[in-house]
Amino acid sequence: MSANTTTNTNTNPAYEKVLAARDASRLTAIDYIKNMFGDSFFELHGDRRFADDKAIIGGLGMLYETPVTVIGIEKGRNTKERMERNFGQAHPEGYRKALRLMKQAEKFRRPVLCLVDTSGAYPGIGAEERGQGQAIAENLMEMMTLKTPVLTILIGEGGSGGALALAVADEVWMLENSVYSVISPEGCASILWKDSAKAPDAAAALKLTAQDLFGFGVIERIIRQPKADDLAMFESLKLLVLRTFEKNLALTDEELLERRYARFRKIGCQKA
Amino acid sequence: MDFFAFVKPKNELENSAEKQQNVPFVPEEMWIKCPKCNTLLLTTDMEENLRVCTHCDHHFRMNARQRIALLADKHSFRESDKDLTSRNLLDFPGYDEKLEKAKKKANESVRCGECTIEGIRSVLCVMDADFMMGSMGTVTGEKITRAFEYATEQSLPIVVCTVSGGARMQEGILSLMQMAKTSGAVKRHSDAGLLYITVLTDPTTGGVTASFAMEGDIILAEPNALVAFAGPRVIEQTMRQKLPKDFQTAEFVLQKGFIDAVVKRDMLKPTIARLLKLHGYGEG
Q1: Distance CA B135, CA A267 (A)
Q2: I need a labelling partner for B158 at 20 to 30 A (CA). Which of A4, A38, A230, B177 fits?
Q3: According to the model, what pLDDT value does residue A271 have?
Q4: ipTM (interface predicted TM)
Q5: Residue from A1, A87, A140 to probe the interface with B (highest B Cβ count within 10 Å)
Q6: Neighbouring residues of B52: CB distance < 8 A, sequence distance ≥ 6
Q7: Is A138 on the interface with B (CB under 8 A)?
Q8: What is the H or E stretch that residue A17 is in?
């Protein structure tokens, strides 16, 4: 490992993936919602406690004949939108809105689709005052026993706890050019090597690409990245999502939750 | 640690004939300066006072061994999964060396076992800042998950003392997944109608705050402990503004409504025992 010699002018395949995952021209959650649910999408707002966090977009939509709840982290597609969406960094009220919609989905046994694209939960004074840690923790706990199928797709960046708060699911899929990590490569490099310019080294060390995660058994599927007008690709994605929901809707609650628990239980499990 | 920097260098003492006559030689380890009130404390006094400053009540950190001695009845702690040990799963550069160093200071980032607390059977997990700042790796997550599963199986209450810099980045995504894994085990214990008490100690941050630390039925914290998701330095960097005084202290999160009580160390064991009794747990 050339941690002491490499600078950010150098790059590597892992860091290329990081840059691709952050590419501003990528499709965001809204694009996926439009392409998958079209006019059937009805947006639902607010956490019923504090505010409506625009970094998280959620609502109802029809996947063919099946009503689903869809929740996405939205980064925004231009400067104005990005400001409005807080660059896809959610506050506690965003995670609480997501949980409210998931609980609602459970009530109607509607499957939940989560679309994750965030550099992380927002690190700010208000977020801390309103319990960012508590909000994420509650989602992790409640999602584990949510009695309806949950599927999460990482469509760009999966930044730490802020991404995981929407990813305690029956299956987690990643786009081929997406990353999912415990910390940003920049953050990791500045803590470990006091130099955020060594982010490419950190990216390689963290093993954060979809391909790495598939290898660890942390995700179930890698999917090809659709383009804006790629109707055929979205059609096949819709079918894939529907088939997965149908498979899981056929399970009893006990089977569904047992499988979800086992999915996470096995990760990092050492035999004594 | 820089606690001893204030003590005069030995040679300075030796050079002063007068001082040599009047002042008995005192090994540096015997003294410790309170970082809060700057009072010089006899280490033995401080230790006897449960590692709390005798002058201003500042709570010094405790390692896992000290905290188990504080909370568990004498000789009652039976440790489980002692053989689980962190490995460099991702082949992360420099991690082997860090682990080697950490393992000299502490067995692991968390110690779990069964004990009695004022005679009441309970599972106890204590994180240890001496092991890579209590960061949560796969072994941490596995041990805590097993402790919750055992408590659920045995219908026992569980007490978890947290101290953590967050998820351990050297184990990458596998560390992050421990947040979900432990939360699942907490939920099962909770759904079984069993009591979970969290004790937040300085510092409790990141992925531990955003998982089992904040999932207790009752959440206690030690005075002035840092309790945060994003640490103060991260926030200062993003916000480019000074943080309010006492931001993210135990008292601050109490006022914001996220914990139940701030409890001084000498009251910690009686408080936990009282809460256990209030939930119908008794001796034997």
Answers
A1: 17
A2: B177
A3: 55
A4: 0.95
A5: A140
A6: B46, B58, B59, B60, B264, B265, B266
A7: yes
A8: helix A13-22
Task: Please indicate, yes or no, if residue B107 is contained in any of the structural domains.
Answer: yes
Residues of chain B contacting residue A136, judged by C-beta atoms under 8 Å apart: 210-211, 229
Q: Is B192 at the interface with chain A, CB within 8 A? A: no
pLDDT digits (tens, 9 = 90+) for B155-200: 999 999 999 999 999 999 999 999 999 999 999 999 999 999 999 9
Please list every residue in chain B whose beta carbon sits closer than 8 Å to the beta carbon of residue A182. 167-169, 171-173, 175-176, 207
What are the C-alpha distances in Å from A259 to residues A77, B4, B81?
36, 54, 25
**Cβ pair A206:B169 closer than 8 A:** yes
Enter the pTM of the model. Answer: 0.92
Q: Which of B109, B177, B233 to mutate to test the interface with A (most CBs of A within 10 A)?
A: B177
Report the residue from A124, A160, A205 with minimal CB separation from B235.
A124
CATH number of the domain bearing residue B210:
3.90.226.10
pLDDT tens per residue across span A130-180: 999 999 999 999 999 999 999 999 999 999 999 999 999 999 999 999 999
β-strands A56-63, A66-73: how paired?
Answer: antiparallel
User: Structural domain of residue B158, as residue ranges?
Assistant: 61-278
Quote the tokens at residue B204: 């409790």
**Which portions of chain A are predicted below pLDDT 50?**
1-8, 272
Helix (H) / strand (E) containing B177: helix B172-191
Task: From chain B, pick out residues whose CB is under 8 angstroms from the CB of A165.
Answer: 210
Question: Which neighbouring-strand residues pair with B199?
Answer: B161, B220
Structure tokens at B177: 């997944």
| Any A CB within 8 A of B254 CB | no
Optimal mutation site among A99, A214, A267, interface B, most CBs of chain B within 10 A: A267
Helix A132-144 crosses helix B172-191 at what angle (to 10 degrees)?
70
- Spatial CB neighbours of B131, under 8 Å, sequence gap ≥ 6: B102, B103, B105, B106, B107, B108, B109
Cis peptide before B27 (omega within 30 of 0): no
| CATH among 2.30.38.10, 3.90.226.10, 1.10.10.350, 3.30.70.100 for A13-261 | 3.90.226.10
Domain boundaries of chain A, sorted by first residue: 13-261
Domain count, chain B: 1
How many Cβ contacts (< 8 angstroms) between chains A and B? 180
Both tokens assigned to A249: 């809707």
